[in-house]
Amino acid sequence: MVTVVHPNLEKTDAKMSAREVSVYYGDKKAIDEVSIDIPTKYVTAFIGPSGCGKSTFLRTLNRMNDTIPSARVEGSITLDGEDVYRSKMDVVQLRARVGMVFQKPNPFPKSIYDNIAYGPKIHGLASGKTELDEVVEKSLRRAGLWNEVKDRLEDSGTALSGGQQQRLCIARAIAVDPEVILMDEPCSALDPIATAKIEELIDELNGSYAIVIVTHSMQQAARVSQRTAFFHLGKMVEYGRTSDIFTNPLEERTKDYITGRYG
Amino acid sequence: MAEHTVKAFDEDITRLRGLIAEMGGLAELSIQESLEAMIKGDEDLADGVVVRDKKIDALESEVDKLAVRIIALRAPMADDLREVIAALKIAGVVERIGDYSKNIAKRVGKIEARKHFEPLTLLPAMGDIAAEMVHDVLTAYAARDPVLALEVIATDDKVDAFYNSIFRNVVSYMMENPATISSAAQILFVARNLERIGDHATNVAEMVHFAATGNYPPDDR
């Protein structure tokens, strides 16, 4: 089955490209020949019912599935044309370029300052205290958290509220100057106000980074993304402009899912 | 269409469609009765049309409220969203159609020497087509049928042709029978109202097409 790509979709610069990507967990095929370009300047949302493979596919983009022994990836994924799965790829470096934010905020059990400073330090992106201070402030500012934490940078990151912790994690991802940010249900553990702040942040970051977000909230996909891909049973069923997918989807399965008629 | 997982959503949509159908049915009846009243000089029938218009107005505000509630509570998407938006707009248009019938009804008492007043005989054929357009567009709405909607749109040319022909006829009649000019002018207004009803039925047809397909009908008509 071929993905239905909306015919009116403009060509855009692709930051990452997946071609006929299949993912297996042991014998089970979790992703079936998915091809998609992740645009440089847009937010791309992956939607679909639980178990459709959207998170699995997201995790192939920075090789997070490597940590699962039975997982196997076929097909090709490139970042700026470079094969992400080539044997010489430095996976730590890859994950700095393709950062990730998870469903539950997972700050390090360290100070707010160290949460941000850790990445730049190990990647050698900042030398000396002054430069590091700058990176920490800049990252926290970009994540919209600076004013809330500037007087308590030595407090533990885990002492922040859930929404603040999630913005801390986004600041941490930004600190190493990534090119792509993957977000796996970044708001599912947050209240509506904290969610709105994250969504505002995604809007702010849009254009500076290629952002891919997996979300169960279709309203959220509609609000924050410019491109939407609908996944179902491991296949990418439909891909197009978010405004088209939510007003006039071409595929029956997409329509049934987004209108709440699914199964 | 398949059912929503949340049954109450289906009930809301069904109720919305039911309101539109009810409004449309009343509007269609008002077209027929206002014309019948006009032709027969039946002022009781005309009064009934005026009273019915209040009911149509009340239904429109019910559609508005329900549509807003559905948007707020159910966050409809894709064809559901188009359905709700179309219902909102269709209700507004059908309300206008009701107004035109009411306007025709209000002119019933203004025709003098009705028995020998020829221009009245021009109206029924045009009225039938306008009423049929409204009937068909409601059928298209109920069946979500874009093809029938296109047929309704095509019919509007006939109504326009009727209007032009009645206009010419009535103007000639006025010149030949200057004593009846004020009654004849009423007939021009009635014909004009029917022509507007045809235009509004066309608008509804465009909405039906949009709700069913996601696209407005092509412009080359």
Description:
- The complex is a heterodimer of chains A (263) and B (221).
- With 263 residues, chain A is of the alpha/beta class.
- A seven-stranded mixed sheet of chain A has the order 1-11-10-4-9-8-7, sandwiched between helices. A four-stranded antiparallel sheet of chain A has the order 3-2-5-6, covered by helices on one side.
- Chain A has a single domain (4-108, 177-258), classed as Rossmann fold (3-Layer(aba) Sandwich), CATH 3.40.50.300.
- Chain A has helices at 54-60, 91-97, 112-122, 128-142, 146-149, 162-175, 192-205, 218-224, 242-247, 252-258, and strands at residues 4-5, 14-25, 28-39, 43-47, 71-79, 82-83, 98-101, 180-184, 210-214, 227-232, 235-241.
- Chain B is an all-alpha fold.
- Chain B is built from six helices and no strands.
- In chain B, helix 1 packs parallel to helix 3 and helix 2 runs antiparallel to helix 3 (78-106).
- Chain B starts with 6 loop residues before the first helix and ends in an 8-residue tail after the last helix.
- The interface between A and B is medium-sized, with 16 and 17 residues.
